[in-house]
User: Fold this.
Amino acid sequence: MSTKLGRQAVGWIVAAGLAYGGWSALNALGQTRQAGVATATNGATTPFWGYGGGSQQIRYSNLTQITKANASQLQVAWTYDTGEPGAMQTQPVIADGVLYGYTPTHKAFAVDAATGQQVWTFDSGIRGSGPNRGVMFWRNGQEKRVLAAVDNFIYALDPATGKPIESFGTQGRIDLRENLGRPAETQGVRLTSPGAIYRDLMIVGGRVGESLPTSPGDVRAYDVRTGTLRWRFHTIPHPGETGYESWPKEAWTYGGAANSWPGMALDEARGIVFVPTGQPRLISTEPIGSVTISSRTRCLHSTPRRVSGSGISSSCITISGIAIRHRPRVL
Assistant:
């Protein structure tokens, strides 16, 4: 039950199951693969397993088949070899019995979660490197999309075929260097951790440089169908925005970072996304308000507006981060 594609390499995914019952449990998904198309045939709704355990990022599974008592009985069910050298710094995402991930050079791939058989791979033509921690998956009824990042681009892929959906952005992709209020060709932003999917929005941060000059760490929400920018939040406030007066006056014009690179947690019921952020990069090292830049606490609404002030009096406490409430608006 081993699927190994191409030469031996470090870029492997290994699936384990219990010898006494693991195989039947894996194959109960009832998947068939025809002409590279992913199709579920048993009519059942299989669970979605996202990055970090799901949208709330709780890193917890309530599955009970594998326990401390039987973990020693686990055996290899299948292996998938990407055919590339290098470490796979990615977490598999599973939807409808299909496992999605990235190769070491950031090609997106889909394999049958029950057998390890490859369904498709997507090569953007851009050779990536370093961490790319997982794809994003969106569905609404029969509409489905895999949102895959490569360098400064995010592609919308058809989950069945792995082909870009041309109606998304420009020829199936958006460029994260755009819509930052600065010349796109001078910016450097890439997505190394999945964003949050809320209704028809893809909310993302990104990785930027850690020294000046560098890009601002704006949090942005895009329409998952069209790739249109729906809203953005300036982590370094602009003139007229709450909190601007507590920053160096020109920080918004040259400052950068204050970005969210590790991923976000979403409270879907209340429409709030919790966004951890890093330090801003500024010329000035003066404290902001009563606390330093690195420990500033903010609690925010979105479209976006602030719920309360900074500091310990805030009714919503985060550490080096923000909380955003979604209220759609037109830019």
